[in-house]
Every structure is written in C-alpha cells, then in structure tokens.
Amino acid sequence: MKKSFVFWVEEYFYNPNLFQQILSIVFLPLSLIYCVLMWLRFKSKNTQDFGVKIVSVGNLSVGGSGKTPLVSALALRYEDAAIVLRGYGRDSKGLYVVKDKESILQDVNVSGDEAMIYSRKLPGTIVIVSEDRKKGISKAKEMGAKIVFLDDAYSKHDIKKLDLLIDVKSKNNSCFPSGPFRERLWSGKNAMVLEEGMDFKRVVEVKDATPKMSLVTAIARPQRLDAYLPRVISKNYFEDHHSFIKSELEDVLKKDASDSLLVTYKDFVKVESFGLPLSLLDLHVEVKEEVFELIGNYGS
After folding, report:
1. Which long-range contacts (CB under 8 A, 24 or more apart) does 100-109 make?
2. Which of 59, 107, 112 lies closest to 84 in space, CA to CA?
3. What is the pLDDT of residue 2?
4. Burial letters 264-288, b for 16+ CB under 10 A, else e
5. What is the Cα–Cα distance from 72 to 284, expressed in whole angstroms?
6. 133-166 b/e with 16+ CB inside 10 Å = b?
C-alpha cells in the first residue's frame, strides 16, 4: 500500500495523468497559501555565520535529484571537508559522527544510506548526521573542517551559506500540494541553479556485470536510471530509502532466474551484507570548473 502511494505521488508531481492534473488544479488555492507561508518563513529568518565556508546542495522540489553524487564530487576536491546531512531513513536520532577523517564509526542503520555512501566514497571527509544542521556544522568545525557541505538544506534560511540547486524538470511547476515545489528561489538568496549537461554530467560504470541482471532499487523517481541502464531482465522498484530484507531480494533472483541483482550504490550499502550476487550501477559526476570557482569565491 505504502509503495503504491509513493509511486502515485511521484507520478502526480512529475508526470500527471488527466485525473491528477485536475486534482492539481483543485489544490491551487492551498498551494498559494503554502507558498506565501514559506515566503514569510524565509523573510522571518536571520542568518547565522559559523565562520566556516558552507555550501548546500539540493533542489527546490520534492523527491530525488541525484544530489548525492554531486555532493561527493564537490567534497572530493577539498581537504578538511565535512558533509552534514539529516540522515533520512536511519534507525537513529540525534547527532552522530558517521565518519571522521580516517575511519567509519557507525553502521548503515545508524547513519542511513546516503551518509554511508559518503563515508565509503570519500576517505578523507568527515560525515555527520544530525536533524539539527547547526549542531552538525558546529561539530564539523570542532573536528577541523574548513568547508562544510550540507545535503539538501536550502530551507535552512537561518544558516549563512551558498546554495547550489539542481534543476529538476517537471510538467507541474506549482508549490505543494498542487505541485512538487517545496519552496521558490527567493529573491535575496545566495544561490545558483545547476543544470545537468551544462554544469555537470553523470558518468556510469557497471561493476561485476553478469549476463542476466535484475534491477532492484529504492530511490526516488527510479525511472531516472533508464538512460544509464544496461540490458536487464526486470526492473524492481521500491519506495525511496526502503529497508530491504534478504528474502524479498532472493525472490527476485528466483523469479527471474537471474545471475545477479543490479543495484545503485544507495542500495548496495544496505544489501551487501546479505551475501547475494550483486552488480553495481556505480555513478559519479564530473563538475565544470566554473562551479568550483563559484565555491572558491564565495565568502572571499
């Protein structure tokens, strides 16, 4: 039931059918109220300067935008970098240092999938999960970070930062609940919109490929993967941040008589311990130098 609802909402926001388009129009008055409230919230905030360079990477709309590989590519460039994120989908609450500059200190249940990706892919970077981003920033600074990347923190208007926003295409450009937009690009924000293909590009490598692979993934809007997929026997979609159990993956292997499960890194960090045959759809991002120049000039 939950899975069906999640996919229905994604369709409603990004590729609505006729009924969903009508429903979106019905919700327009609520969207106007919501958007005004978000603007008032933005105007009511006073920014706090933490004395360290802070860059937030995210998007204005609900759902995934592929920000994790972009954050990884940016953080990889800098020494003394830290990533602070909420840790959505984790089985813990509060602040945890998932990784210091040398070692991974938590497991994926405590960290959440995205924080574990950063921890595995960025050996010299501090990774902290905290619902309170301010506490996370203060901890990162205490640990020696000179630049802090916030994962999806545009709405934290009380933090002095540079906002990098991934442009997400949608047939519906309204605010929630009529459309997918959580906020607008408010006048006065220090922000830049990045467009895939112009400011950055994705590069995909399939590791440990087998002749017969079944795609299994739990990311938002999984159809985004279609452009990068090799030939697969089936596509098995789960809701974003789904916590897999071994038996449901074994069922896919058995049903398809496949040689391996093709997973993204976000899925891999949650299922590698199951001991099942896995192929990895490993994605990284190449970023134009102009983006790094923008970050370098920020605050200088």
Report:
1. 100/126, 100/143, 101/125, 101/126, 101/143, 101/144, 108/269, 108/270
2. 112
3. 66
4. bbbbbbbbeeeebebbbbbbebebe
5. 8
6. beebbbbbbeeebebbbbbbbbbbbebbbbbbbb
Whole-angstrom distance, CA of residue 30 vs CA of residue 198: 35
Tokens for 101, please give them.
């500059």
Where residue 279 falls (left for φ over 0; alpha for ψ -120 to 50; beta otherwise) is beta
- Would you give the DSSP letter of residue 196? B
**Whole-angstrom distance, CA of residue 84 vs CA of residue 97:** 9
pLDDT in tens, 99-122: 999 999 999 999 999 999 999 999
Q: Is the pLDDT of residue 131 over 80?
A: yes
Q: Could you give the dihedral angle defined by the CA atoms of residues 127, 270, 260 and 282, in that order, rounded to the nearest 10 degrees?
A: -20
- How open is the CA angle 231-233-239, to the nearest 5 degrees? 100
Distance CA 128, CA 96 (A): 6
- Quote the CA–CA distance of 211 and 29 in Å, as a whole number: 52
Q: Nearest 5°: CA angle at 146, between 155 and 163?
A: 25
Q: What is the pTM of this model?
A: 0.92
DSSP 188: T
Q: Domain map of the chain by residue range? A: 43-200+287-297, 202-285
CB 209 within 8 A of CB 279: yes
Closest to 242 (Cα-Cα) out of 220, 259, 260? 220
Distance CA 73, CA 67 (A): 10
Phi-psi category of residue 38: left, alpha or beta, with phi > 0 → left and psi -120 to 50 → alpha: alpha
